[in-house]
Specification:
2 copies of one chain form a homodimer. By secondary structure, the first copy, chain A, is an alpha/beta fold. Chain A has helices at residues 12-24, 42-54, 69-76, 89-97, 113-125, 132-141; strands at residues 2-7, 28-31, 60-65, 83-85, 103-107. The first copy, chain A, is globular and about 45 Å long.
Chain lengths: 145, 145
């Protein structure tokens, strides 16, 4: 799977760990930065990630900041993105099965690396259920409907 | 505080409980529905809630669905909304202090009523820190910047 990953300064270390894990799982990973822990603004990296989902360069995205909340809001400004901020794998599973989430947001100050990997694993491996969920997901792509 | 609350069918009972708690705390609450547990689409109620935040009718919003994820995505389609999906009070606190969140999303199938109230309490009582966070929040209002 082609996966893009982006963060803010608070999550550069977690980004490196999740990037390595994804590569070990055989995925093609594009790291959109930042490369250092110098202070940046999470919306800039959220919008950057959203744009590569919207243009199809990446099939899935991983968005990281201190809480996961700010970068998730930024990603969801783009109607092509369905970003779920989660802290445990059940939510990651539901985000895929019910909401066809294409971006997962995680908080580096809220959860540890093992928990982040468990969330990411559920996000990567769970299929969308379609059926009645499809109509709702379609409405998320057309916010003015 | 003028607070609007909306859900999907999975969270009508939690909506009634949180509405009562908010009224007990002295807030003015607008319940945007639904009124029954008949199946509805969460984006419809998310957009409805976002519109009353955007036009200033409500100062804060409470968005509920089974996981909180779908309705949070819908709310965040509106650049006037900063909606945080949370499952515990620390995230609700950070959503206010760092992200100036004006809507909280909770999952009725993930957390119990007491935990939902603890999240809501943190969301209502925590002030935004401004400072370096203000520039980032401003960027969330201008997704094309």
């Amino acid at each position: 799977m082609r996966i893009a990953i982006a963060s803010d300064h608070a999550a550069v270390d977690l980004k490196a760990e999740l990037r390595e894990w994804l590569i070990e799982q055989g995925h093609e990973v594009a790291d959109l930065g930042p490369d250092t822990a110098d202070s940046v603004d999470y919306p800039d990296y959220g919008y950057k990630l959203a744009s590569v989902i919207a243009d199809g360069t990446a099939e899935r995205g991983v968005a990281l900041c201190g809480s996961g909340i700010g970068i998730a809001i930024a990603c969801n400004r783009n109607p092509a993105v369905r970003c779920a901020q989660v802290s445990e794998p059940l939510s990651a599973h539901l985000a895929r099965s019910h909401n066809d989430a294409n971006v997962i947001a995680l908080g580096s100050r809220l959860i540890g690396t093992e928990m982040a990997i468990a969330c990411l694993d559920a996000f990567i491996s769970t299929e969308f259920l379609e059926g009645r969920h499809q109509r709702r997901v379609d409405k998320l792509s057309n916010p003015n409907c």
